[in-house]
Each structure stands twice: as structure tokens, then as C-alpha cells.
Amino acid sequence: MKASRLQTVLIPLLLSAIGAVLFWAFWSGVTGHEGERLAALALARVPESGASNPVTSVLLNFRAYDTLMELAVLLAALLGIWSLGPAAAPYQPAALLLNSLVSWVVPMLIIAGGYLLWIGGQAPGGAFQAGALLGAAGVTLALSGRPNAGLPDESWLRVLAALGTLVFVLIGLTLMFLGLGFLTYPPALAKALILTIETGATLSIGATLAAAFLGGQPRATRTAEP
Amino acid sequence: MFDPLALAVALPLLGALLVTMLPGWSRALGMLTALATTVVALWLTVTVWGGASLHSDLGGWGVPLGIALRADGLAAALVAMANLVALAISINATGYFGTAESSRKFWPLWLLLWSALNGLFLAADLFNLYVMLELLGLSAAALGALTGTREAAEANLRYLLVGLLGSMTYLLGVALLYTAYGTLDLEQVAASLTPGPVALSALALMVGGLLLKAALFPLHFWLPPAHANAPAPVSAALSALVVKAAIYLVLRLWLDLFDGIVTEAAGMLLGLLGAGAVLWGSWRALRAERLKLLAAYSTVAQVGYLFMFLPLLTATPDGPERERLLTALVLLALTHGFAKAGFFLAAGLVQKSTGHDRIRELGGAAQSLPAATFTLGLAGVALIGLPPSGTFFAKWVLVGQAIALGQWWWALVVMAGTLLAAAYVFRVLARAFNREPTPKCFLTDPRTEIPALLLAALSALGVGLAAQPIAVLLGAGD
Q: Where, by residue number, does the polypeptide cross the bilayer (chain B) (predicted)?
């Protein structure tokens, strides 16, 4: 007991000391250095990027390579979940009241997702937000007793999960073979390419999140959709 | 127009997506991707070898707005080693997994891991490095759990959490640097970095996080169970490549980013931890009961040698000595990559054909599996550091420079580690060749054996190192 009481005093003290040092470093970083900063430069070049929303410009154009690999991280997470075994047993079917609510909520989530995807070019929104809504629609379906969360069977689900990254990397490689450089969009096509990539990414993110919620490899049952 | 830098990352990624979508074709598509990626990686290395360090601005924005890929000699050397080892592992995996269900799980994750490895070696952007670390850690942990046993799942969950803690700590350091200097490009930050609280905190956070991933003693606790319980091709990749990626990054930060910030005391601390790793890892390898656990602890020890170079590198001024030291360090990393991957693949064959990998019951393996036993022997030569292996040259330079700098204690650690390595390698080989149980005591007739032993030890360890005094002695009569 003595050791643990010592720990209850020492560990918070140690953590606060580390926190204080880090805050001091952060403070001297914020105040100490003047010079050209990346944010101003990025804002200045947003008009050339094919999207007027600065966040989308950074994610899908300036630092598109990072986003491509982040999508791969998402896929790796799903494949990792699948490798651990089959999904848990589905929830029991919901009662009538909840079921009718679900049949209202899910289409609205899908429409809202589509809206967020489209608006992402000019205002806050984009593939990750839209994909999160699609994922939420899948989670709602799973919670109300649909065994596959509204997702297709495994072979199509695999295609759906890889689609976003595939579109992204194929566009990158095509641009490279055309001599422009990997993921270097020609300015005239930038908007169209960004929208194509974001559409694929939205579908994949939505499917991946819903499939991850099921927590294992999809069962071989047919989708029991009405 | 082909960009080998982007292709080295994009090809395995494309392959991973294809095998995800077409699991029935995973073996054929996987091997095709493996061959194509290796060709690109070797082409990249040959180009850099020709004297041109490669550079590529992805998106065409240029730094600091866009992300750059870069390949200098250090990156190219590791890319070549990693891709050759990865190709060998891929070929081995086609046999190891066959067409079983686990093969369909292996290939997509394996190609994602490959993509992350190449991406990490070629990255020139601090945040992009974090993304690569995430992809690497996640796919490595998932691959490690493929055996499906409870121990494997537990060990790899721990590995995943430790890896996440490591990359989060690294990211915190990157955030500090970005706050202070407003850019993420490695060269730009390095150019404007000045000593102060920001640089020191970032150094501690980034290197600290990576030490956890590199499994430097005493942060190695997660490595032996995770590496020993994975399927053999995965163990080979984890030990030979994934750990190396974290060490490469420590080296990159130490030499390029924090050059001028790192102090000799910081180098000394890492060197001491490295020395601890050499002694403790070798000792545990000697005591290990299973072949793969032995290999995993041997990795802990070999990681230690790599870190023992850091205090010497920090203390050596720029010049041919420092370059020799760096060459030796890279040579050691490359040799260990090849040797440990070979060792694990051979151990996998032993485990598959005998049904276990208990060293005690390896008797007669040499008769039934001559090639695997020979592989263990050859890899053992490299792990011990017998000439003409790269480890021999590396240890030679390490000891020489340690003595030249007056830091003789590193030489003692190298010698102790080498003796322990010889002991654990010969313990396996002796078992493999011999059906008889080994005798209980080390000496049977001390009076006759100890003089012989001392003479042999003197010849192996004493005379070579005493060359300098002997030369003085020879000159004395003139």
C-alpha cells in the first residue's frame, strides 16, 4: 500500500512537471520565432487548388499524398479487424417504432452525406465528414438489427472499401505517366479530379466505418433487406 | 515519365488494393507486385549509386506547401535491403501460407506494410513520416496476430498500443517544431533549428517515441512476445525491417534534423541503453527455450549495437573517421536485416516440419533439414560477427573508434556481446547436429581443458587486439 500511495503522489507530480516543461517549450515556440509561416502561404494559393475551402485544398491537393496514405491506414484498420475473426452476432431486430424511425433517419443521413461531400469544395465539409455520416447510417442499421449494417456481401464490400484509395492512387499514377508528376493535377481539371477522388473516398470511408462497427469479417449470410 | 520515388510507394499500395478486391488472386497479384516493386527499388538504388540523389515534389507545389520525397545514399541503401528482404519474404510466404484462408489475409496487409516501409525511407516531411509510422504500425500489428492464437493476439495488441504511444509522442514533437518554425519539411526545419526549449523538447519527444518503436532496452518489453508469436514470414519482416525503419528514423533525426542540437551526454545515454540491450538481449537469447524467441531477443541485442554508434558519432568530428563510422553503422543494420530475416524464415521451416521450435528438441534437424540448418549457421555467422560478414567490419570499426576516442568501455560490451552471440548460435547448431543430450557441466577435466580454452581465447580475442603493442615490441630491437 505504501508503494501505491507513493505512486499516487509521484506520478501526478511527474506528469505535471512534464506538462509544465512542454507548455514552456510550446510557449517559447509560439512567441519566439518570426518568419514565413506555412498557413499564410497555403491561404494565398488556395485559388489555384481547384477548391475554395482551404481545408479541402490542403487535404486533397497540397498534401494529397498524406490523405492517400491516411485512406490506406483506414483500409489497414479494417483488414486488421477482419483478420481477427468473424463479426459478433447481430443485434435483435428493432421494434416497429424504432424501425420506422430508422427508415426515416437513414435516407436523411445519406442525403446529408451527399450534401457535405458537394459543399466541401467551398465550405466546411468533404469526404471524411460525408463518409462519417454514411458510416453513421450503417451503424444505425446495425443497431436496429440489420446483420450486415446495410452493406453488400463480402466480395462487393471489399471492392467498396478499397475503391476510394484505388481511385486516388490510379489518378496519381495516370498523372505521373502523362508527365505531370504523381498527384500533380492540371489546374483546369483540379476541381473535377478532387470531386472524383472525394466521391470514391466518401463511399469507402462510409463502408469502412460501418464494417468496422460490425467488428469482424462479414458473415456469409445474405442481406436480409426487405 | 516515371518517378521511382513515387512508384516505390504507389506500386505496393496499388497491389494491396487489388488483392483486397480480388482475394482469389492474392498469390499471383501479390507476387507480381512484389517483383515490380523490387525492380523499382533497385532501379532507384542504382540511380542514387550513380551519384544523383533523387528528389520529387508530389503535387508540384514544392516545399514547404507540398510534400517532397527524397532519396540520399542512406535511404537508398535501406530501400535496397528492405525490398530484397521483402521479396524473399514474399516468395517464402507463397509456400508458408499456401492457398489457405490466411494467405488472403496476409497479402493485402503485407503489401500495405511494404508501401509504408518504402514511404518511410523516402519521406522528407515530418508529418508524412508520422502517417507512414501509423500505416506501418497498424499493418505490422495486424500481420503479427495472423496466427490467431491467444498469445499472438495479446502480444500484438500490446505492440499496437505501444506503437501508438510511440507515434503519438513523435507527433507531439512534430507539432512543437511546426508551432515554432511554421514548416514541416525536414531540411527546412533543420536549417532554421536553434538550440532552445523547443528543439530540446522536440528531440526528447520524437526520439523518445521512436525508441519505443525501435525496442531499445529497456523499452523492448513488447518485442519478444510479438515477434516470437507471429507467423514466420511476418516475424522476419517485423525483426528485419519494421524495427529497422524506426532506427533509420532515429538516425535521420539525429544526423540531419537535430545535428548541432544533440549533445554528447544525450548520445552517451542512448549508447548506454544500447550496451544494456546488447548484454541483456544476448543473455536472454542464450536462455531462450524456443528458436523464434531466441531470434527475437537477438534482435533486441543487435538493436543495441546500432545505438552504441551514436555516442561515437556525436563525439567524432566531421571527416573520414565519421564517415567510416556511419558506413559501419549502416552495414550492421543491413547485415542484420538480411541475417535475421533468413534466420526467422529458416526457423519457420523448422517449426512447420517438426511441429514445434523448442531448441531442446531440435536434435537431428540437420539430418532432416540440411538447408534450413545451414541457413541458421550462416545467419549465425553474421549475428556473431565472424569475418567476412558485415557485422565483423562494423564491430571492428566500432571498437577501433571507441578506443581512439578513449571510450574503451564500448569495446568490452562488444566483446561480451559477441561471445554471448557465439554461445546462443552454437547452442542452436549443437542441438541441431546432435541427437545426444548435452552434458550437464561445461568442463569435464578442468586441468586439461582450461589451458586449452585460454589459448584458444587468446588467439581469437587477444592477439588481434594486441597488434599495436606487438608492433611496438617488434620495433624495440632496432
A: 6-25, 32-54, 74-94, 106-123, 129-147, 159-178, 198-222, 234-255, 261-281, 293-313, 325-350, 371-388, 408-429, 450-476
